[in-house]
Design brief:
Length: about 120
């Protein structure tokens, strides 16, 4: 009986050592699952970040396009107003010069007539 107990104890001890050794040599599957899950989560986060970046770029582009459109309209309005002012000033200056030329021409014609009527000695 003593021999049987010793043999049983040795057998159980050897089994415990072998089972422990086998357990340490095998990777723990929840660790693999955890790594896979971490990789999936990282991939999802990268995807979400790319979407967010895309939305931000689109928003910035739309904002810039609107600002450009508004700036162009403002510049066109200013140019139109300044062109009208310049055209008005040109027309006024031309009329003024025309009136002055007309007056001078009339004076020259009148002086020529008077000079023709009174010859100088």
């Amino acid at each position: 009986m003593q021999t049987q107990r010793t043999l049983t104890a040795k057998f159980l001890g050897a089994a415990l050592v072998l089972v422990s050794a086998l357990g340490w040599s095998q990777p723990y599957s929840p660790t693999q699952d955890s790594a896979k899950q971490d990789a999936k989560a990282a991939g999802q986060e990268a995807k979400d970040a790319a979407k967010d970046t895309g939305h931000a770029v689109k928003k910035g582009t739309v904002k810039a396009a609107h600002a450009t459109e508004n700036g162009t309209k403002k510049a066109a309005d200013t140019t139109e107003r300044d062109t009208k002012k310049a055209a008005h000033a040109t027309a006024h200056g031309t009329k003024k010069v025309w009136d002055k030329t007309k007056s001078t021409t009339k004076g020259a014609v009148h002086g020529a007539k008077e000079g023709a009527e009174k010859p100088s000695n």
